[in-house]
């Protein structure tokens, strides 16, 4: 938040003012989480964008399910909203929509849910040249990129409950803000993926 604010304005003690604002915000404190524990598995940074993606489902949350796909290099996020419980067929359809825009990844990391481990989904990955990697059972932190974005989505949607917008517009706003916000390296996912600010 501080890095994003500094892109548009600057004043003395901007960081402290933002910290105080966040501390006094009731909505912000309601979605605050403890820092994540150190991951059990260290993933090497891919050479290219979209070489490795991390996927997971969020939900049911507010009556819907959300497919979350995160590029491991740029941290570019895609989110698809589902009105009903996901299955392999729906998941493959949604992934094909995403892959039509970004291309096929070399590696896809997921949990061991039956949606991702059944023969139909394995065949889908094999036919598209995607190597599947599964996280250690009972250790979701090994898929931290996807898990963190699941929690971020839920937190942001909670903060937007008073906004009278269709869910797809809420998700678009969340994605836009996330993609435009600088990461720890000072660059936003948009700068790292699209090579420009948005």
UniProtKB/TrEMBL annotation:
One of its GO terms (molecular function) is RNA-directed DNA polymerase activity. It comes from the Eukaryota. Its EC number is 2.7.7.49. InterPro entries: Integrase_cat-core, Integrase_H2C2, Retrovirus_Pol_polyprotein, RNaseH-like_sf, RNaseH_sf. It comes from Araneus ventricosus. GO terms for biological process: DNA integration. Residues 42-197 form the Integrase catalytic domain. This is RNA-directed DNA polymerase. It is an enzyme of class 2 (transferase).
């Amino acid at each position: 938040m501080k890095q994003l604010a500094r892109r548009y304005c600057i004043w003395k003690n901007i960081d402290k003012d933002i910290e105080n604002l966040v501390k006094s915000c009731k909505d912000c404190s309601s979605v605050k989480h403890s820092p994540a524990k150190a991951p059990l598995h260290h993933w090497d940074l891919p050479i290219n964008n979209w070489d490795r993606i991390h996927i997971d489902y969020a939900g049911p949350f507010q009556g819907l399910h959300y497919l979350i796909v995160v590029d491991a290099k740029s941290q570019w996020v895609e989110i698809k909203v589902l009105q009903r419980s996901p299955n392999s067929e729906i998941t493959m359809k949604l992934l094909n929509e995403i892959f039509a825009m970004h291309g096929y990844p070399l590696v896809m990391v997921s949990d061991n849910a039956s949606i991702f481990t059944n023969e139909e989904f394995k065949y889908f990955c094999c036919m598209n040249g995607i190597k599947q990697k599964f996280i250690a059972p009972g250790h979701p932190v090994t898929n931290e990129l996807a898990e963190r974005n699941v929690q971020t989505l839920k937190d942001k949607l909670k903060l937007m409950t008073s906004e009278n917008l269709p869910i797809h517009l809420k998700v678009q706003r969340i994605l836009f803000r996330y993609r435009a916000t600088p990461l720890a390296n000072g660059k936003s996912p948009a700068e790292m993926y699209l090579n420009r600010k948005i």
